[in-house]
Amino acid sequence: MAFIGVSLLLIILLAAFAAAVIAGAVLIIIGTKLIKKPEQKKLGVTLRIVGYLVLIPTVSLGIIIAAVIMMSGTK
Length: 75
Known about the structure:
Oligomer: single chain
Helix content: over 70%
């Protein structure tokens, strides 16, 4: 029974990680498209900055968590 709970927790964490990565990537893509339009340049820059602020810590934390999980299984 404990295995089901841990598995469910890992699935939820993975889904949250994927959602954050997708959200950050979408913000960067939309911001890049808006930068090319002169009247929307400020909004495009802002969206790209927010996208990077979402994406970089999320990916960094994901890499750290993955490393800890892999290292804990090698005892």
